[in-house]
Every structure is written in C-alpha cells, then in structure tokens.
Specification:
Blueprint: H1 8-52, H2 54-64, H3 73-88, H4 96-99
Length: 111
Amino acid sequence: MRAPVFNLRAMGRAAFFLGVAATVILAAAHFRNTGCALVARVRSSAATALSRDPLSFTLEQCQAIGMAAKDSPLCEAVWAENRRRFFTGHPSPPVADLLGHTAPLLSGTEH
C-alpha cells in the first residue's frame, strides 16, 4: 500500500518546529535590540546612586585598589559601616564622619 502524499502528522510536527524556531529567532532579535538600552539604563541608575551615596562610591574605590584596601583604615571603616547599614537597615552618617576626611583612595597616596 502506498503512503498518502500529505502525511498530516509529519506536516504538523514540521509546522510545530518551524513555529518554535521562529519564536526563538524573534525573541533573540527583540532582546538583542532592547538589551543595550536596558544595560544603559542600569548603568545610568547606578551612576546616579553613586552620586547620591558617597559610601557606595568609596566601597567601589576600595574594591578597585584590591588587596591594598585591607590595610586602609578608611576602607575598613567603610566596610564596617556598610555591614552596619546592611544588618540594621539604618541610614549611615556621611563617609567624611567615619574618619574625619574623604580623600580619594585612587590618588596614589597611602592613608
């Protein structure tokens, strides 16, 4: 006996896989185009948060100087304040009040 020319089951499977492939391609194209805008929004909001919160900026500086930060009293004070803020949820005093100065850590001078 001959097989029918149009096998509906095989055509249904092919249509399903083509639909899934088209969905994946369209989703990838959509997220590729909107992903850049999302990253830019996250970066701009992070920059805004850093400008409003000097503790975050100083934490970032301590992270940038690496192992030298463990010997910095300013970094130790900032980390202690960050832990206190995290565990208690209370706002912190300005970083200038922690050690009495806010000299930048990346200026090349040791504190």
